[in-house]
Amino acid sequence: MRIRIAHETIYRYDTPATKAIQILRLMPRNHxxxxxxxxxxxxxxxxxxxxxxxxxxxxxxxxxxxxxxSELAVRVAGEVETQDTHGIVRGTRxxxxxxFYLRQTDLTMPNTAITDWAxxxxxxxxxxxxxxxxxxxxxxxxxFTFDVNxxxxxxxxxxxxxxxxxxxxxxxxxxxxxxxxxxxxxRYVGGYFLRGDGIVNMESGHAWTEAFLPxxxxxxxxxxxxxxxxxxxxxxxxxxxxxxxxxVRGTRYGGQGEAMxxxxxxxxxxxxxxx
Amino acid sequence: xxxxxxxxxxxxxxxPSFFDEMRAPDGSIRPAYQQLAFWLDNIPKDVLDYRRKExxxxxxxxxxxxxxxxxxxxxxxxxPFDIIPRIxxxxxxxxxxxxLEQRVKALNAYLHDAYNKREILRAGIVxxxxxxxxxxxxxxxxxxxxxxxxxxMIAGIDVVRVDPDNFYVLEDNAxxxxxxxxxxxxxxxxxxxxxxxFIDHPVAPVENYADDLLATLKSVAPLTSSGEPxxxxxxxxxxxxxYYEHSFLADKLGCELVEGRDMFVKxxxxxxxxxxxxxxVDVIYRRVDDDFIDxxxxxxxxxxxxxxxxxxxxxxxxxxxNAPGTGIADDKAVYSYMPDIIKFxxxxxxxxxxxxxxxxxxxxxLKYVLDNIDKLVVKEVHGxxxxxxxxxxxxxxxxxENFAAKVKAQPEGFIxxxxxxxxxxxxxxxxxxxxxxxxxxxxxxxxxxxxxxxxGGLTRVALSKGSLVVNSSQGxxxxxxxxxxx
Lengths: 275, 486
Description:
The complex is a heterodimer.
Chain A: E1 2-27, E2 34-43, E3 50-53, E4 59-82, E5 88-89, H1 112-122, H2 129-143, E6 145-146, H3 157-163, E7 165-166, H4 168-181, E8 186-193, E9 201-202, E10 206-213, E11 217-222, E12 227-228, E13 233-239, H5 242-245, E14 248-268, H6 269-274
Helix pairs in contact in A: 1-4, 2-4, 3-4
Chain B: H1 34-42, H2 45-62, E1 81-88, H3 90-114, H4 119-122, H5 128-132, E2 154-161, E3 167-173, H6 180-193, H7 195-200, H8 209-219, E4 231-234, H9 243-253, E5 256-258, E6 263-266, E7 269-272, E8 279-280, E9 283-286, H10 309-314, E10 319-321, H11 332-335, H12 338-346, E11 353-354, E12 358-359, H13 363-371, E13 376-380, E14 389-391, H14 397-409, E15 414-418, E16 424-429, E17 432-441, E18 443-446, E19 451-453, E20 458-462, E21 476-483
Parallel strand pairs in B: 1-21, 3-11, 4-5, 4-9, 9-10
Antiparallel strand pairs in B: 2-3, 2-18, 6-7, 7-8, 12-15, 13-14, 13-15, 16-17, 17-20, 18-19, 20-21
Helix pairs in contact in B: 3-12
């Protein structure tokens, strides 16, 4: 399947900002089942965009802009060819052994509510780990309400878990938190998802997870959709949590009254061209 | 950090088995102390008392204070200064300094390996969890090129003596060790108060510490820096407990004292604002914890750092001293592996000893610790400032029971050590001159060219009788430390 993606983030300031710096994780890499056909990252202001690779193997773009900045736009556009791999993720750039991903972070640190819940899903521990992971995914999918107003990017797994409301980022944090507690390496994945219901315009990208099993390798679980990743998933960045894989981390100096507008379009490329 | 350190093992009374650095068990005076002992015998007590008050007055006037966190009422305190110097002879110092150099070389080798090839894991010397499971492991440093492969440019290694021949390392401070300003101030005061003593004693100077530090920092400048590297000292600001030291050192180094907000990133370079416009910064002697140095790489809510600093670091255009992520080399869990780490990287036997340490993560050790908890000091692997530790011999039954339960619940979070018989030195206290327990923090500087250690360090002394707690936050004081140059 060929997926076309356009992702635009526009910052506007009532009082112009004097300086801005951003680190973008908005560039996909190739791996089995994912081939980048074309991709571009554009910044509206004149600046040098430094491409680099971060500690997790994600591709980053860093730029600084001198003001006055009353509007700053970051535009990403591209096409990716995908194939269904039944959720199995291979051919990725690995910088750490899987056991590293047992590490909890401030955003995934479980409390007893999460560990009790995870232990309950584990049960007697006799079923294969793959089944446990599926059960974990389904438990999140079935019991949590998708709600864009319930959480913010700094919401922790504990807070989202208590809330029972959240967005894909929160689902992914809860999944990682519980899986790591059960001694299964797990990581956060940021990317895009082509929806099955025909809706192509969205307010943000998507987030899901990958868990590691010795005999299968990394397997992608998407608790927000209750499925393993399919050809509809385009993988951009991974890390221990949202912060490590965040599409944008940035700061501005000066400037007031910031308004941010995000527009994400994920569509099937071939379908579009037929129209 | 001086203020935030945990107390060391405490015993309730002084026993004759303690090693006294001035007096041998038969009452005779050890050679290094001959002249000092004679001087102490002849100086009237009221003169000593007068000099002590004078010292206190000077300290107060120059404002050398430290802050105790959690004490709202008095944020700034004076650390008591004992006017009787501690003396080490040349041979003792040479052995100690060889051991320190060895230790710091091993720490650097370990850090480089832990963030790159991790051969030590393949060799099975340390468990993987010690690196990856460590909360202060910085994934961002993984595979990151570090200028000249030096991670720890400034180390403060805490050592104690228990007998004439052996120094034990209590703790390797490889993050942002503090206390060096006391070493320098103490010497300055002693020179002012007792110039006559320096005529009789060939005391090795410590005043060149600032020159050594600056030479070290310049030597580790990035390869991309042009001409004379610009060094700055980065402080969290005036509310930090060690702010006095930050401003003191910046002054001695002749470099700018900056906060995060005084610097900015442009392109791949780091600049500081100056009255003459932006100036490129090559080396940051940073006294800000990892978590706070760059909100785009670490804690996003930090207001103390420079956004994008780590990107400049990644580009190889700035040196951070010390490097981020050095905490994995100095926590209490890795401490117990240090002898093996030294052997693994250097192929040498450790010169300085390690205190026997029981790792509660290992079942047989856990059993031993729980069976003997009333005799041991049990510490949290990541605890500091005296929080989360149990001093078995000094604790009541209920405290011990509660603590044992905590250890059982999370054994990997604890280690245990026997109480140590710290050596004593003559100290001027209310009842006169009496032996008090001491430790020593020498400062080890590692540059591209060589390792520099000024002869001496910060001696901390437990002022109350029998106490083994030398921490300034627990009423400990400091002494000038003399290394005899002959």
